[in-house]
Amino acid sequence: MMTRLLGTADAMSPLPKVGSEIIEAIERSRLVGRGGAGFPVATKWRAVAQRSRGDAVIVVNGAEGEPQSKKDRVLMSERPHLVLDGAFIAARVLRARAVILYIGERHDAARNAMLRALSARPESERRLVTTSAAPARYVAGAEAAAVHFLNEGIATPTNVPPYPFERGVGAAPTLVQNVETLAHIASLARTGQAPQTTLVTLAGAVKRPGVLEVEAHATIGDSVLRAGGAIEAPRAILVGGYFGSWVEPEHAWNLPLDADSLRRHGLGLGCGVIGVLPASRCPVCDTAGIMRYLAGESSAQCGPCFFGLRALADACTRVAERGTNPEDIKRLQRWAGEVRGRGACRHPDGAVMFLSSSLHVFAQEFAAHRAHNMSRSA
Ligand SMILES: Cc1cc2nc3c(=O)[nH]c(=O)nc-3n(C[C@H](O)[C@H](O)[C@H](O)COP(=O)(O)O)c2cc1C
Ligand code: SF4
User: Fold this and answer.
1) pLDDT value of position 2
2) Which of 212, 300, 317, 372 has the least C-beta neighbours within 10 A?
3) Fold entry, domain 21-191
4) By alpha-carbon position, which residue is closest to atom 1 of ligand 2?
């Protein structure tokens, strides 16, 4: 029977007796992180395990800063014990002295559910835990920002290395792991089964937007249909949220959501957002809106990120508001290449990945855009 994260009663039961062999099971399962970067989980656990002298720290990342994503909040609200199980299994296997629940400051229902569940846990687990409210900024969920915030109260990414697994919270080896990833580990530890599902947030022009648990090999089309289908003919589908890529609907429809299949198409599931853009919306205006948001979320520490994203957002906005100017299109293409890889964190890379996919998928719209009243768009 397939194990599921959602739609299953959440109850506390004794933690399964797992040791370091779980790392091999995680490796065999090919589980990758569900917070956005899609990094192999077993590799990260080994890196912390090698360095821990009983002093490691586990950061449970429930910041969920991506505006369209809801899956982490829903998971923490519906299955808090499963998330805590994952955290305490990590604490045991990695010999941690502390578990920190780093939950978005606006995610009240999720935080309350996690705290209620925690209060029912044995004292031996409770005493490991502290909580921290992640600021409501896009970059606050990045692992280096989380560690910086927990050490110094500033939720901006720092220049890495040293990486959190080397020197993180209180200079100790630190595992920062997304809440969905931890829930999958708990489920794997209980059932021995590799994760067969993934959580996605369906956003945009679907009949029933929200969080769904889909089979890992389900296609994007299956997920859209499970959300009631598109409200009107889609123009494109955003796979992976604001750091993701637009895909033409006919290409997206049959794409399986598993990490390997998406990678083969140069895509990633990121934080699991699938956003449907209807043909009636202006993709140039939406791209400009998202780029302005991402530029505003730069932590202003790296010039190419702060100035580069702002210049890209301004150029997009000029095209959206005043109509196509071939110089702006050339600038957008050139500057996107210049910004990539030039920040201390992946924020500028994610933003230009999104922008490059817009310029590609909406090439016609960018090439022949007429002045548009931006107040009518997002
Ligand atoms: C700008 C930025 C924002 C991020 N926001 C989040 C977030 O809100 N939640 C999250 O779990 N991971 C977020 N990440 C990814 C984290 O850096 C990190 O990879 C993740 O928490 C690790 O857990 P995972 O391997 O289980 O995904 C973000 C990364 C970047 C670059
Ligand atoms: S790349 Fe951008 S968001 Fe990341 S640390 Fe530098 S300025 Fe901040």
Assistant:
1) 75
2) 300
3) Rossmann fold (3.40.50)
4) 343
pLDDT one-digit tens code per residue, 45-59: 999 999 999 999 999
Ligand nearest to the CA of 179: 1
Lowest mean pLDDT among 153-167, 210-224, 302-316: 153-167
Rounded to the nearest angstrom, the gap between the alpha carbon of residue 327 and the centroid of all alpha carbons in its chain is: 34
Nearest to 63 by CA among 74, 77, 53, 73: 73
Cα 207 to Cα 198, 226, 231, 248, 332, distances in angstroms: 21, 9, 6, 19, 34
- CATH number of the domain at 283-376, out of 3.40.50.2300, 3.20.20.300, 1.10.10.10, 1.20.1440.230? 1.20.1440.230
Q: Is the CB of 15 under 6 A from ligand 1?
A: no
The SS3 assignment for 230 reads strand
Asked if residue 108 lies in contact with residue 65, where contact means CB atoms within 8 angstroms, the answer is no
76 lines ligand 1 (CB under 6 A): no
Contact by Cβ (8 Å): 347, 294: yes
First-to-final CA distance of the chain: 42
